Amino acid sequence: MPLGRDKEMREIKFRAWDKVCREMFYNSELANGDMMVIYLDGEIQLSDDDTYKPDDFILMQYTGLKDKNGKEIYEGDILRLWRSTGKNGEPRGEYYKPFPVEYCELWTQFVVVDKPNKIQMGIWQAFGAFEVIGNIYENPELLGGE
Predict the structure, then answer these.
(1) CB 100: neighbour CB atoms within 10 A?
(2) How far is CA 80 from the centre of its chain?
(3) Could you give the 3-state DSSP secondary structure of residue 137?
């Protein structure tokens, strides 16, 4: 059977936080025009220029999910959770605080983490809607100093 893109195949994408320039990259072109290749196993290969090193980046994987506004949800994003939706689909009953998205090895899925209460929740369960409001690198203040 030939390899090809199947309708059921999930999209595997990464973004990278540049620890040196403190900037997020969603594609392979870096700020100075260097190119970065991110392999599916998370390995990074950079162009011949020695401006960057692979250790200068933190990779975050796309969860395969989108928030209530259609924005892609990545590992490291900070989500506002809504308890339910109204008759017209509007979110209501905001959960009490924003949560970061992490990958849980035990559950083999992406979760939101409530560290003070030691709770992890699958980002698909028991909530009406999610909204990306930032990420842990560009907006750490959203987590209230965790």
Answers:
(1) 21
(2) 13
(3) coil
